Amino acid sequence: MLPHHKAKALKSSSRRPAKDLCSECGLCDTYYVHYVREACPFLNQQIAPLEVQTHGRSRDLAREDDVYFGVHQQMVAAQKITPIPGAQWTGIVTTIATQMLTQGQVEGVVCVQNSDTDRFGPRPVLARTPAEVLAARVNKPTLSPNLSVLEEVERSGLRRLLVIGVGCQVQALRSVEQQLGLEKLYVLGTPCVDNVTRAGLEKFLQTTSRSPDTVVHYEFMQDFRVHFRHEDGSTETVPFFGLNTKKLKDIFAPSCLTCFDYVNSLADLVVGYMGAPFGWQWIVVRNPRGQEMLDLVMPLLRTQPVTSQGHRQPAVQQSIPAYDQGVTIPLWAARLMGLVIEKVGPKGLEYARFSIDSHFTRNYLYLLRHYPDKVPDHVPEYARQIVSQYQLPPA
Ligand code: FAD
Ligand code: SF4
Looking at the whole model, is its pTM more than 0.70? Predict the structure, then answer.
């Protein structure tokens, strides 16, 4: 650990060495910036060794489920029997975190509330009470400097911590885990893709929703539609294929366009939705700490086994040039396509593979075009395997 006076000096001169690729994970806002060259996921991709450090082994590249979903001991689809109002899905993440606090497994939780003036403005906090965790429910769908509270964690002297975060935050956290002086660290991750700056989010809402200012929640769901919920409780759906690809292509943060850790490989437990049937959440238990977290809330959940249906590859292959050329189709045709693909398209784990394939091929092409020097080190072996199934347009 750095002495504090030295650390302060470093902090005041802190920069973000990943430059345009910075995902604002928050590490560089703390004196742990000292470790940035090793810890930053965009300067030093080290998923495989960190998997060994965290889970005791790296992905088995001969097993398709490992290649796609990372090291895991169990996957299951689940819903809270009594959903938490205002949560992103049914509130499994919030429930696990509040149970961890009330049952004494941890003394604090790193999570993201919203700012006083902006419901989607992220405000990372070290929550010490269930009410503070509850106040962090629902996605703030923007880059969020979660690790900026790590100094507060150290100052608070707490020894058992839960961190909720997306892949890039978790990768940086794992790299400095040994320096945090904790007795026990639990990591509850969500999958993450296509994140945006606050300005990018505004453009997405303005371009896509009928009433951008009243959106309180949105999600890209398994039925190939974006679902918006508005202040008055009404919902609005827009088919993926009707999105204005040309206008929206440049809103995603460059960090997210070069990311290959969609499934949050280094969390102990991952809670998302994309491997589960429509309306259900998808849970990936990566190691015994993750199982411990899930066991705490099992009595509060309804579960079913994960399933897989359909064939993603033709749809992914067709979508690659369409996305690359920024093809936008009229809304009526998009709705029709949405109906057809909902009936015959990939479902369950195959839907998750569809989404991973689509994003990894796009990101690989982006990296080849914009950061060719980074291709050899930045693309993990499992991602190369996934991308190699497809024919890409010329770089
Ligand atoms: P809740 O109980 O509502 O809790 C949400 C938690 O998310 C809170 O604890 C909060 O601290 C944390 N959080 C909110 N915003 C952020 C942020 N910007 N960075 C880090 N943590 C945050 N799942 C998929 O299966 N596929 C996807 O493509 C996908 N993309 C996502 C993109 C983003 C930017 C985020 C934040 C999440 C994404 N997820 C995705 C996860 C999914 O949307 C839900 O968050 C997850 O299923 C948990 O739902 P819940 O109701 O249990 O969460
Ligand atoms: Fe620093 Fe995180 Fe940005 Fe990397 S992604 S430069 S570690 S703030």
Answer: yes
